[in-house]
């Protein structure tokens, strides 16, 4: 969740409220590990996103004062095969217009907005204002706004919700509008998007004469919740709920819509409505299926509605889906969606490493979902996975300097998977940008009489509790060290509960309040220690989380990982890279008895901790051009050095491997 959700009281007064709300972005100053990431986004990525959008000729699509760039791609969404055939690297001359470019503008605006909290950037702000002016001019008198359906395929609005991302684009522009309003106080885009949301509410809904549809690519649901919270307008919340409740009901809207277009509904490229989680009503769903990003956005919206309306039927469904993802379908990196074919899920325990799709957006989406589950109260079941996805499968998608990107995040590479400047489907760069730039809001959440600390690291948070301002200062070298020092500075003595997460990876934790040891067993539930007291200026909390090196093994049902081991330390999953290990990484075998050395490397990859051990490796020997023989290969000793997975491919290109052979 983001700052947008705390700006005003919840829209639906009288109904159950969100128990815990994330702190707004500007109330959390982030330093240390995440401070470096935020700086990279604020000083480089935010500008790069704008520049690449312009280079991709996206301005031409949205600017009514320029000639329309014209139709370039077919009516349906391009399949991944088509995308691959078209080439992933963006080049100016071969770029094709995309029906989802409004969403890229939305996320670019959102990234710029959060970045402005970190660093003034008048030039970028001016450019974003100009983009907003174009959207203002483009908007039709009835409020409708879609650069694709106005500029590229006019006359076809609301005819193909299944494939064409129309409401999805609206959702991202709404999120951008909310964030930009909060960061700059400028409400032009917010007003534009309220007019558009009003139009959408007039078009869709349960009332007679309105369309009974919903978007093939979820996103509008969670965006409308943000819009409702920032404006206090209940109708936007109700519309979000309508889209969720309506999904997958029979007669199926996408069938009806296809027939109206004169198409056979069965001629659907992806064959099954599981692709868009519309195969059955959401409350009857029990498996994570289909396109992974769509699934994460849907579940995020469902979690919002579950908390806003106190809807336990949604909550039960979400827990079922969470279990399915966590126990059968999640990479150890917090990546998800193994297949490029549907950009999503396949079958239980199918987690191939080299061909893992594991889109950056999907991990970012898991962070969104997990953070919303924390709205129902502190629970390490969700926060642990939020941390896993944050530190591994999501930020792996952004180079350390903030300039290059991954779309897929495999767990094994033979050296050809390298970061790119841009993508013909550029959803991931602004998604990771907006998440990193708003990271402060994932650290804490606040209720009427409690503050929950979900993540650790250097930084200062400011919030009001019981009407009194409080400053909370975290000092820690996390994620490299598990010692966390927290200073609590209320303006006047104030009673509240401080919830501190005890991560599942930590087997031994110790807590002191003002120097006195506290028994964690007495005060811990759902993976959080709860300290309730009257806090006074100068109070100090010391949390010591033992950060051991872990050898992790996969459930033997995961055929790709059997006989293999992955290394982890604290929240970080490690990998080996060719540049540290002389290549041929598949030959490395790590003995279970190997002592693993932990070393601080302040000058490597921006300052990391490496893990190294003496392993074994099949020797290079002359096989006389033979492929097979009866004598096994000779084995020699080899030193192996592992680095955090998120930092891979920031040096010389080469092989990479997460799951090592276990011996
Ligand atoms: Zn993406």
From TrEMBL:
Domain Non-reducing end beta-L-arabinofuranosidase-like GH127 middle span(s) in chain numbering: 451-547
A Pfam family reported for this protein in Swiss-Prot or TrEMBL: Glyco_hydro127C
Non-reducing end beta-L-arabinofuranosidase-like GH127 C-terminal domain ranges (all copies): 549-661
Top-level lineage group: Bacteria
Residue ranges of every copy of the Non-reducing end beta-L-arabinofuranosidase-like GH127 catalytic domain listed in the record: 31-440
InterPro entries according to UniProt: 6-hairpin_glycosidase_sf, Beta-AFase-like, Beta-AFase-like_GH127_C, Beta-AFase-like_GH127_cat, Beta-AFase-like_GH127_middle
Name this protein carries in UniProt: DUF1680 family protein
